[in-house]
Amino acid sequence: MRAILFYATRFGWVPHERVLDEAADTAEPGTVENTVVVFVHVEPHDEPVLSVKATKLKKQIRRLTTKWRTDRITFHSFSHLAREKAHPAAAKAFLDEMEQRLTKAGFEVQRSPFGYFTDFELNTPGAPLTRVYKEL
User: pTM value?
Assistant: First the structure.
């Protein structure tokens, strides 16, 4: 699993093109301010251990939400960080699990549309720990 985590003063998306049959028929645009944005790529070898990967990613997210004093987290499925991709159902299940865990922990969780190419806007300050890459 690979992830790029950003602290964003603003993150917005507009669905452009549906690219997966598993995706919802329609998708809405959205904007979130003061959020940790997580671009996540699930790989095939992650599928049997999604729960373990979720625990590791949650730890990284908590570190950044504490640093930036925010309770907002936004997930964006981004399958461009490695050559191999997990099955879309596994990637979606991982995002579902992350949303459940973090919501239960008191975070406000948003997700850009799964299975769509999106236009997005990402504003990050030029400060330490606003952009973090992790291989989990």
Answer: 0.89
